[in-house]
Batch of 4 targets.
Target 1
Amino acid sequence: MKASEINCTACGRTALVRTEPVYEGFKKTGEVFICTLCGARYASAAETPFARADARPKVFNDDDKPAALSVFSDDERQRCCGWCRHFVVNPFNQRCGLLNRETQATDLCARFEKKPEPRHENTKDTKR
Ligand SMILES: [Zn+2]
């Protein structure tokens, strides 16, 4: 059985939910969903406050996401091959178009030349 999470409305926590079959005589008529933390019962899937992947508890907020990606400081990162105008990506490898040798986006290079228009994820300005 696949474990599911709910945002339990009874105890207000995110909990794993347990399903129990409901029988009418010998015929299975449905399932009830039970909060494993407080035991609240939900009579049907429609009534169960399932936690969706995009509705996770707010452990991370949007401000945390860019920080998690900033392994390098801006200064360092912008001297990496990935930011260089000579950096060539094709389906087989990544290479430096200037030295014509294989390289990594994170390599630092003495021949670095910044790309003419570095892309920023969050700004769609038309600065020129
Ligand atoms: Zn609960």
Target 2
Amino acid sequence: MKEKALKNMKEVIKDIRRRTKHIFNLEGKTRILISRLNGRDIKFFTRYMALVILIFLSISFRMLAQDEKPNIIFILTDDQRWDALGFAGNKLIQTPEMDRLASEAAYFQNAFVTTPICAASRASILTGMYERTHGYTFGQGEIKQSYIDLSYPMLLKKSGYFTGFFGKFGVDYKGFDQLFDVGESYDRNGGFKDRRGYFSKMIDKDTVHLTRYTGQKAIDFIRESPKEKPFMLSLSFSAPHAHDPAEKQYFWSHEFDTMYQDLVIPEPLIKEDLYFKALPEYVQIGENRTRWYWRFDTPEKYQNSVKGYYRMISEVDSEIGKIRKALEENNLAKNTVIILMGDNGYFLGERQLAGKWLMYENSLRVPLIIFDPRNRIHKKVEEIALNIDVPSTIFDFAGITIPIAWQGRSLAPVLKGKNPLRDRSEFITEHLWEVDIIASSEGLRTTRWKYFRYRNDLKHEELYDLKNDPQEINNLAENQIYRKKLVEMRSKFDLMAKDLESKKLQ
Ligand SMILES: [Ca+2]
């Protein structure tokens, strides 16, 4: 190929020389003999000069573009499990915008959270640290200032980016207003035990669904952000989180009412009694079961709940479409990176459970898409990506030094065809909140194996070979054949947990 290109180039140069030998007087002082040019020569000369100028301009613009920092939008959904996404192979859910984004992006098919609960997962995304280190979850008061000082919004604001946040911040911190240039922290309105939980915000004089409200906030931000600075916008949709106190649980805007209405949602996998009975008693009577009664304990309730959950995701999807349109209209689409992730997974009736919190794949796996319009690729990444990778990825795109204290890695090189995850073979996963209704648990997940245990009942351990048992139904912890693997996983977990514990800040 190279020889052929070189040959072609030589031919072109020869041709230029031949055609221009009487245009330039090469023997004496170089000058153009205008009088001797004929029409064909002028056409030819103009065409080549135009080409040279075009190449020059294209190189210059490219150099400029490389210097220009991208805008970044990080979209976090609440409780969207990894397969509640068309691109993940779900044939029922309608997520055309997320699918379109994924089709030109890096799609991480093995993305996980290091802690499957809203508060702790969000704190991990903010700080780039495992829960074991930052120590923040529900019921513990405010997150410590030392972690906020190292959080991505705090450092990004000092770096020249114009920053914004709209939606569920989900971490208790009084100084929210100082963390972003513009922002509003809100979630479902707990004061209402019905649909008003999701319909308490207004645009002009209309009460709208929170998803519409957050979408509009994003569009306004895009229109109004100062043109001389790059921006970083964090959007945290409350959807598709159920409005827990309401009988109907899931709420969406009127225009999504008929979506999925004629569909029959297939029954959940491993819904049989034996899988439920295999759980420790404290899980059988815990919050995962309580919420199963709220959402899935009759076939009718199951159909309504899953369709409601899907409608809420489809509504977020349609707002993503509007946001991308706003980027186009404001001439920002070509330089705006979009990251989409879920904050934790979700049980939709598997094991006769609902909610998240447990160490099963249902809780841990989330959707993750990274779209960079400057490097449109179609890449499915198999390696393990984590929620704690998000801030490092944002900083890498922004060209800012990544703090040493952060425990994730940048996923941005994937967009340039590199593989920064090749040597990541495992991660710790944990839910450290000590609360009566949810059993605290911790474990280690490798590319093939998973080990976990309940922290107040250390003798109960579970070990799964995910390659041969992706549903996690054959617990090998008591099987002598796997004794060595169990000890190896347990020791590795203990070592990694101790290391993360030692990294706590004051
Ligand atoms: Ca959540």
Target 3
Amino acid sequence: MKGSLHQGEQPAIVDEKLWAQAHQVFKETERPRSLEKPEPQDAILRGLLFCESCGTPMVPTYTVRRRARVRYYTCLSAQKHGWKSCPTRTLSAGTIEEAVRARIHPHSLNAVPVAEIVERITYDGVSGQVRITLRESHLGREGTAL
Ligand SMILES: [Zn+2]
């Protein structure tokens, strides 16, 4: 089949993932500065939030709407391989941060960084479920407090 293609002709079916990867590489070489993605400094769940579907980190990002900055966490896999590769895609940063704050409320009174309390957060975009894993030291403290 491949041999029958004439030069300049496109195969009818392109592997979507491969195409997305190739496209990504092309974009990066075309515009090296795009590698420096603007990341909001107040992304408190940076490095803690993971996409349940892909097992990859969800990274902080934002868009500007009507001059206001709207923050998101975006699945790294979706960002790299295209939206169709992941059902979770993005999550409103405000929503997830509020959910985490509500969960760790007793600790937040001490103004402890989230990363010291929370070990890992996973978000499942299909069911909308958030799973928060607390660090063991804090689970122990919670146990004695009760
Ligand atoms: Zn994902």
Target 4
Amino acid sequence: MKTRDVPHTETLFDGDEPEDTLPCAVCRRPVKSATAKHWIRIINGGGEILHPSEFGKVEVDPMGDLGEWPVGPDCRRKFELQGWTFKADHDGWK
Ligand SMILES: [Zn+2]
């Protein structure tokens, strides 16, 4: 199974999320979910990103499957998550 660690950042956002947002998977700053361009699938209780090429091919432990979360453009670039993100045209969590 192709995975990598979810990057950690020192600048975790710690405040109320505005309506219609989800926290960025890396820094937790609010990202507008309806217009978020980049998403990652988080598994293993929040510790790992599942590579999009594995979607539908591997079995994920449902107990540790946190679903899909947006990644802000800054975090995507900073932590080189290109290739690990996918585009979604829905509200993420499903
Ligand atoms: Zn972020």
